[in-house]
Amino acid sequence: MALDLLRLLSTHGNSKTITTAIRTLSRAFHEDPLMHWLRCNNSNREFWLWLQLGLLMGRVYCTTNDIHAWMSQFPPESGNSEKTGYIPTRFLDAPGGIAILYPYLDPDPIPLPMIGRLLKLRLKVFIKDSLATRSSTRKRRNEMFHRAQENSYRLVQKRLRPGQKLWYLQTLAVDPSLQGRGVGKRIMQAIFQLIGHQPLILECSREANVGFYQSLGFEVIDTITLADAASKREECVTFWTMARFT
């Protein structure tokens, strides 16, 4: 059952719960190429603020088991320090996985208690970005990403049948200590149950993960390379828009 594995996180509730969720997100996306390209390798403090903002923008599900519980269920692999059972103590009570999900083009209304917090975080991120030396680069890259995203989604929408509801998986994060142990697959299977096997769309930022999603019934809709010609090094990033229709 989906609810045996995932629980809905109250993002305007216990601050400790939110902090532990952000720890999982920050570890999972520490070296994500798309994230780094969009944020221009910003500081840990700015990255932390950005993750907090992301938690307020959708339905956040986290695993009912924390990292320590998952590690006890699955034997550690040898030859890799991240997967031999070592993990800083402060991370042990963090959820093993996080999923941020919402209906595409039909987002949930923001609860009143969250509005003030959301505005405060947006202001902090805006100030940080405005003061950053690469703020114009970030803005330009985010605009490029959203344009490409919209073009890909149009391709998906053309294939929807009448009455189908499209869902967007903004984030699937599994703590590095648990990657390769089947945690991501279990989370995805729970998500399919939660949305009633309606169409689901996502962006995959690593080519190595494309096969994982294909094994779950996703297909590549578009392969997108964004090149920032205005930057000194003409930095670029590639990601894959993927969708599951059944």
Helical proportion?
Answer: 40-55%
Q: At the fourth CATH level, what is the homologous superfamily?
A: Gcn5-related N-acetyltransferase (GNAT)
Approximately how much beta-strand content do the residues carry?
15-25%
Helix/strand order, N-terminal first: HEHHHEHEHHEHEHEE
CA radius of gyration: 18 Å
Assembly state (oligomeric): single chain
Molecular shape: globular
Number of domains: 1
Task: State the major sheet.
Answer: 7 strands, mixed
Q: What is the CATH T-level topology?
A: Aminopeptidase
How much is the average pLDDT?
Answer: 77
**Separation of termini?**
19 Å
Total helices: the number is: 9
Structural class call reads alpha+beta
pLDDT < 50 stretches: 78-82, 110-127
CATH class: Alpha Beta
- Major β-sheet strand ordering: 1-2-3-4-5-7-6
Second-tier CATH architecture: 3-Layer(aba) Sandwich
Q: How many strand segments? A: 7
Organism: Aspergillus coremiiformis
Pfam families: Acetyltransf_7
GO molecular function: acyltransferase activity, transferring groups other than amino-acyl groups
Domain N-acetyltransferase: 100-246
